[in-house]
Each structure stands twice: as structure tokens, then as C-alpha cells.
What does this fold into?
Amino acid sequence: MELTLWTYEGPPHVGAMRIASSMEGVHYVLHAPQGDTYADLLFTMIERRGQRPPVTYTTFQARDLGGDTAELVKGHIQEAVERFQPKTLLVGESCTAELIQDQPGSLAKGMGLNIPVVSLELPAYSKKENWGAAETFYQLVRELLKETKAQEYKPGKWKEEGRRPKVNLLGPSLLGFRCRDDVLEIQKILAEHGIDVNVIAPLGASPEDLLRLVNADANVCLYPEIAESTCLWLERNFGIPFTSIVPIGIGATKDFLEELHQILLMDKLDANNEINQSRLPWYSKSVDSNYLTGKRVFIFGDGTHVLSAARIADEELGFQVVGIGTYSREMARKVRTYSKTIGLEALITNDYLEVEEAIKESAPELVLGTQMERHSAKRLGIPCAVISTPMHVQDVPARYSPQMGWEGANVIFDDWVHPLMMGLEEHLIGMFRHDFEFTDGHQSHLGQLGGHVKQQEAKSSTTIKDSENNLNENSVCWTSEGESELLKIPFFVREKVKRNTEKYAREVGCKEINGEVLLDAKAHFKA
Amino acid sequence: MGGATLLKETGPREVFCGLTSIVWLHRRMPDAFFLVVGSRTCAHLIQSAAGVMIFAEPRFGTAILEERDLAGLADAHEELDRVVKNLLARRPEIRTLFLVGSCPSEVIKIDLARAAERLNSQFNGKVTILNYSGSGIETTFTQGEDGALKALVPLMPKSEENQLLLAGTLANAVEDRLITIFQRLGIGKIQSFPPRQSTELPSIGPGTKVLLTQPYLTDTARELQNRGAEILKAPFPLGVQGSELWIKAATDSFGIDRSFVDSILEPLIIRARKALKPYIEQLSGKKLFLLPESQLEIPLARFLHVECGMELLEIGTPYLNREMMAQELDLLPESTRIVEGQHVEKQLDRVRAHQPDLVVCGMGLANPLEAEGISTKWSIEMVFSPIHGIDQASDLAELFSRPLHRSKLLNREPISIASN
Ligand code: SF4
It folds into this structure.
């Protein structure tokens, strides 16, 4: 049993719903109690869809449990097939139905329906939403392609056939972060390189489209959380290679294009000439961005977006990554490996309070996270940009705003830098903040998020006592001069400096902390 | 009983489960914590229904069952004890802990009553631990509140005193207003249930007369009756008429002179009718279809028909308690179509066939209907908004006229600037 106050991911059958709702001609019969129908609102309200998800819930009740729930399931399947006329049927169960073991998948298969039936087994007590989405997509592709004979894959076949190379874009789905626009951006970039798109799936694909997956020269794995297992299977069974780089950020987009050219046996590409299609490199280089140097960032989200964000922060914006983590257990290994390379220990957790603690501990100047980290950061008075699901209605903007490709890099520059103050503005506020015009604490357009807020200081000045709050012979106290020196330290690292100074004071046996001790301690911990 | 046509329908339903009530109950009693013993689905339902209302540490959570809990029951009880102890150690301000049963906990038969008893003896009165079911196999949406209140009834102190008890969660401001009105009418002691602090439970006994503020408190009403209280028969306090009859049910039973009561209520009623007028103009003659969800459908339909002149195509209700609804049904015209239960697909077919001007429905169905050109109102809004009482009647009407007004605004003929 695990106490959960809030969860980053829904149950695995919500992942299955994401696949079914993303596609055309697919219907999902879900053996589940009535309350589970809440999941419809994720699509119709958060993603703002004008169609109901193609899902029939059996909504069995306690009084049905004594009787024949299997018949009930079959009745719902029959009705759903007649009413919605799907081309392919998914059948599965939610957490409760898993316990009563009606095996709706086998029931459906035994009904002699003349459409493909995919039986989904998604263990609700050990797996979560993204896993469920990946598994559903994989099972669906497998079922539909089971009759398709594996032909021998020939790299560069397109040349022989005198056509342009074509690829599948795999992984975009509803309730995925900015998928709608990423797909457009990637299509545009591929078209510029003479690469055609064969199938985009699951978003907008029909079962017939999935049958055509095998005609591609390569798979582009846009979201490994959703599509990696399918890409691996297509590679194993049909020899179709897939890309390993997710094109988010300048460096990654460039590497992705080079990788794809190589996989497709196209002429070697030097994508360096292309990066100026994005404004990010120049904006990052321009003098006003000097102040971005070494900004401390904390990154948390799904695996794909966290890894991409870390690379952009580190290589393209000159930030310092001071904390990194993910809620995607399936991506934990990749995130851990990466974080070692930048000297950090990755935080792998589904507990948002643990993430909040880690944010406090690492005292960042910018948080890149999910909507939950946005809330935490707001409480801590730290600017934040959202980079990952779980989805919120604000993450489905009306305007075009991809994360991938050159335009994606532009969007990211704006989204991340906007919460911070621009360089000159910050400099001036820093310079004049002690002037009388600023006595009430100047706030930039960000208000409190800018960090220059009097309340923060007022609050901490009343809390200046021994952090450990013990009044034994070990206790230390702050002189008023020490206190005012402490207050000059930016609030986001102040708590840490305070703790370190007290620790230092105890170590050297000093009972009263003044400005000098503070400086000594700073030097001590720097050394 | 009026001549309403009562129909039953079964099939796929589109209704929240009783866990959803936690979303407003935890705000009503800030010293209580609601711990669902359930699955990730349960946790996800509550956070999705609660929308953006995320607090630093919310006063609800889910003890999520994992594979190893399903292996053996003894284990599940030990695990629950551990979770509760950690939780209460972390949250010393919690005075009442509700263990809330879910579909998974009920299917594998975790006995939460026994767990509550055991934990109660361990916490020795420092925290009161109660249990009820919010599961989707037993309860819908607002029935969760019925379960929670029912669990509190045995803890209410006994009293013989003559008093009025308002049962059912109200918005605080509305509650204050109603109490003021009853005081003006000369009722001395008025209490509310649930209270604003879980520890300040109202007393109950033979002198207590109960006015139900909400139509979904079947079990709670029975328990209150078992404690000697009298449940007053009245329609529910929605709209001017419903609220007036509801208030008068109390004053009559307290033997307060009718003409005095009228003299107090008259000005309120005149004012409320005046405020209602512009909305009646917008709503009158418009066709209304209510899908089942909150259990408020029948009283709302009665208000919108009788006072606002809307035409009722169909009133869906998750379940129909005829005794509880008797006074409401009396006010509805002959041949009103009331459908208990649901076959969501067939019901939506009927919606499309009748092309109503307004559909009251759940959050999952609203945008798809809007996309088909049908205006909607979320039923969940009714359980969050201050809509009870005479003074609120126009606000209640406004909630329904807003979508109609908006669609009119957005569908105006464009004004051509060049034409002048
Ligand atoms: S219907 Fe049952 S399983 Fe689903 S959220 Fe409600 S209590 Fe949990």
C-alpha cells in the first residue's frame, strides 16, 4: 500500500484510452465500474476535444457481481460493435474488473466478431498510464500485422525503387505534451529534406494505416515512452530501423536529422548549416542573455522531456542543472545514466512532495517541470516553465507551439526565459533596489515570481534563529549585523547558506555569528 | 404524487462514483482527512474531478493497493495501519479520519469497519476514525456525502432540546443566510450537519426537526430518524417556491404563526422574483434535458420549469427515491418524463432527436455536445455553487441562462462597418 496524495500518471487503462481516442475506427470496451467514466473528461475537457472518447464502459454494479458478469460484458461488446461499427476492437479491464477475472478479452474473442479483437492485459496494481499506452499500441500493431509476412528489409530500397525515402512517425497521442504541433513541425522538416511520411500513429491513424507501417524505410520514434516497444518489435520482425534521438532542442534536432540520413542511407548531412533556422542559438548568444549564464535549474517530468530539457539547459542556454529527476520508471535508467554525466543523482519518484523537497534543497533559480512543479515553485517563489505531462488545459494552447524541431526550440527559448527577467531589467533592479522608490520592493512584470519581494525578506528575518532550534550548549545565535548580512544573500540560497554557516560555527565552536563568520563559512564550503 | 412518467433504463452509465464527494466534503470540514483505500484509478478520479484545486498537502489521499496487498488480507490490514500511522504523524491537525471504501477494497473485501475500530482503539480518542463506502459499484457521485454523514451520526451527542437541524453540505455563506432567516422567524436553536469542524458535531434527539438541504441523503435521514429526530417533509430549497415551502415546513412544525412567517418572507420573495425576471425572459419556453448525475436533477427541473418556464424534455436521475422526492414530484406537471438509471448512448440519441436548447450533464459529455451545437451546463457546478434559498434563486437561474446568452452572443449577425 502506498499513500498517494496526487499522482503524475493515471492507471494503465487510461493509457489504452489515449491510444483508442487518438485513432480512427478503433473502439475500446472497458470492463469497469461507473466512476471510471471520469476519464472521458481528460479528453473532452483537458484536451478540449469535441468528440467523446470511443470507449464503452460496462459500468457493472455490486448487485451484478453475484450474477453473470460475463454475460453483461458480452452484451456491451455486442452493442458497442453494432452501434459504433469499429474496424478494430480493444477489450480490457480497469483495476476493479481485474480482480473479478471475467477475462473480457477472451470473451470477446470467442464471440465470432468479424473484426480484429485486441485483448489488453494491463496490470493495474503495478503499472501506470504511459506503460499502458505503450503496451496498447504495441499489442494493437502486433495483432494487426500478425498475418503480414516479414519481407526482407533492404536499407536504401527507396533508391532502387526510384522514390523518396519514407518514414513512420510513431508515438504522438492525445494527452501527450504538444504532440499535435510536434507532428506538424517534424513533417515540415522532413519534407525539406526530401523525406516522406508514410504513417503517423497513433494520432490520427486508422487500423488500415497500421497495416501500411511495414512499407516505411525507417521509424521515427518521437516519444519513446509510447512507441519504443513498437519500434523494437517492428525492427525485430520487419528489420525496420528506428531513430534513437528525440528532436527537441537545437543539438538534438541536428543529431536527429543526421541519424535519420544515416539510417536511410541518404547523403551525409551537415545539419550545422540548418540550425540558424531557429532563433534560439542567436538569442542565446546575444548580450542580453549573458545573465542566463549559470542560472540554476531544476528539471523534473517524463523521461523524454527531462532528458531533452537537460541537454538544452546545459549546452544551449548555459544554465547549470542542479537537480534532475523523472516519474517515468520505464525511463529511470536513461535518466540516471545521463545525470551521472553531469555529476548529479537522479530523483526517481511519483511523490510530488519529495520533488518539492528536492527543489528546496537544490535552491534553483528556474524550475522546469510539470504542472505540479509549477504549483510547488509558485509556493517557493521560484519561476517555472512547464515541459512535460501530466496534461493541463493550459498545455493545449490555441497557437502553434511545438517542442520539437527548429520552431520548437524558439518556443522553448520563449517559454523558459520569459519567467526569468531579462538581463538588463534584472541588472537595473539589482542596482536600484535600495533606492527609496523601491522601498516596497520592486516587482518586475512577474510580480512575486521575480524574487524581489519584500515579504520574503520580512518573513525570513523573523525566522532567524538557530535552524535546529535547540537551546543546549551546542546552540548558536546570529548577531544583528550577521542577520543583515544574511539578508543580503538572495532568498533562494539564503536558507542553505544559513544552515551551512551554523554548521560551520558549531564545528569551530563559535557561538555568535556575525558577518565575518558568514564570510568564513562561505569560504570554508567553497574550498 | 403528480402524474410524472417514471421510466427505468439500464445500460452503460456515465456518472461519477461516490468518491467524488470528497472534493467538497474536505473543504467543508478542514480538520478531517479522507483516505480512500483503493487504486490509482481512484486517486486519479479525485484529482481529475477536483481540477486545479491542488493544495500544498491536500486533506484527501489514496492508500493505493499494490500487487502484494492483493496476495493476502492480513497483510492489507497491517499495511493500512502503517499508512494511517504515518499519515497522522505527519498531519497532527487532523481530528477525524474517514477511511473510504472503493470498488477494489470492496471486491477483495477489506473490512474497513473493522480497521476503523482497531485504529480507533489505538489512537485512543485523539483522532476519530470512521469508514464509509464511496465505491462506484455501490454509490454514485453525491451518495458519497450520504455515506460520510451517516458515519458521523452515531457520534452526535444526545439532546432532548427543541431545535432545527439543517442536514447536507451548503456553501458557508448560504448556510449563514439561512440561519439568519430562521432566527428572524423565531426558531431559537439551529444547527448544521455536517459541521464546519468535524469535532463540533450537532446534538440530536426527539426534539430535533431535520430539514434536508440536499436530495441525496437517504441513509443519513434514516439514521437521524433512528436517533429520534423528525425529518420534515418538503421540497428542496432551490428556487423561490422550493425554498419558501422548505422554510415553511420548519416554521409550521415549530408552530410559528403563518401570517408572521409570511410577513418576514414576503419582502424576500418579492425581491427574489424581481431579480429572477430577466432570466425568466431568457429561459422561458426553452427546452431542457437533464442527464443523470448529481441527484439534484429533479429539484432543478422543477425550479426551471415552474418558476422559469422551461420546457422539460427529460429528467434523468441516477436513482429515484420516491419518498424523498414526493414533494418535488407533486410540483411537477403531469407526464413529465423522468428516467431513472441510464443507457448513455440511447439517452444521447434522444438528446439529438429532441435538439434541446440546454443540456445539464457531466464534464465528460459537455464539450462533445457543444461541438454538436447544443448548449450545456455542468451538473457538478451545482454542488459547488451557492444556489440554495430564496435569495439565491436568481443566481441559480443565471447559471442556466448564461450558456444560452453566450451562444446568442457568439451567433450574432456580424455588423458591417462599411454599411453606414
Ligand atoms: S468507480 Fe470504483 S475504482 Fe473507479 S474511481 Fe470510483 S471507487 Fe475507484
Observations:
- Chain A is about 45% helix and 10% strand.
- Confidence is low (pLDDT under 50) at residues 438-465, 467-471 of chain A.
- The pocket of iron/sulfur cluster is lined by residues A 33, 35-36, 95-96; B 17, 19, 38-39, 41-42, 45, 102-104, 135-136 (CB under 6 Å).
- Chain A touches chain B through 55 residues (CB under 8 Å).
